[in-house]
Amino acid sequence: MWQQWTTWLQEWTDVPGEIYGNSFEQGALALGVLVGTLVLYALGRLILPRLARPPKDAATDQGPPLLTLLVRSTSLLVWFFLALFLASLLLTLPDRLIALVQGVAVIGVLLQGAIWGAVLVNYGVNRFGALRREHDASAYTTVSALGVLAKLGLWSVVLLLILANLGVDVTAMVAGLGVGGIAVALAAQNILGDLFASLSIVLDKPFVLGDFIIVDEMLGTVEKIGLKTTRLRSLSGEQLVVANNDLLQSRIRNMKRMTERRVVFHFGVTYQTPLDQLRAIPELVRQIVQTCEATRFDRAHFQEYGESALVFEVVYYVSPADFAVYMDVQQQINFALYEAFERHGIEFAYPTRTLFLHTNGTRPTDAS
Fold first, then answer.
1. pLDDT for position 128
2. Neighbours of 78 (CB within 10 A)
3. Which pTM value belongs to this model?
4. Mean pLDDT calculated for residue range 31-53
């Protein structure tokens, strides 16, 4: 039946029996393979993403399904060269043309494989981030950096394979690049310094995404750790961009890793305060601090004779170390201390100055 159909088609189109040594049946079959492969590509673009679409009640915060991403990243040009290669296997073609078609098809397949590989790496990093970012930010940072290195290595291997397929002596080229790489490294030592600093940050983890850090006079929340720079979001809202190498050469204070916050505050009472009330103040402060939640009292002492006050120093700890929690606790202590002093008749000191006046040999009198 196939032969009858091809004979009828040949007579209807008035095509010669052979074209460059290929029969009409070979040409028709090769054309069918070419068209069928392209139709398969079109059907895949239309149908597969719909089949892989998540249900309406499923969570969609993890992005499109993997199959949809792979289909979307498939290049029509690469698919066409692949179809052309498959069709050429059914024909008798000159050796140079066969080599050309095969070379183009291999390069296209390698490029498409690299694109799919990059999509797989991004998909894995995003999935891991959606599952672990809030609970393990350091692991997400490490996986993100490894993903960048994996894509860099993948494209490097694909580039070498393409050059080898084009007949380039890859071994000699790699040796030449090794010598030239030294010169490039010297010229780009600042960039390479930031790159290695980025790897050091990822592996050593002095901070991770979401940490609040203080670097010299800059402070903010870590938003992104890149290959060259790290981005912080300051308290006033602007973004701070700092080179990774500068970060590692600075003194970094990671405030998020505080297990508890040590608080030291001072207050002063007047010099007219009786001795028995002075002795009672440390115990009074201890009771106030211990009645507050999330606090651990350390000490309260009459520290020194100030210029215009008798100064007390109080030390306690707040857990958790969140700044808002600390301010709430300190406010509660201040209110309670004011109320207790008012109840016991103890006066807070404020800056005052006493002048002693001598008049014609009489005893000095004071005037405040």
1. 73
2. 20
3. 0.52
4. 67
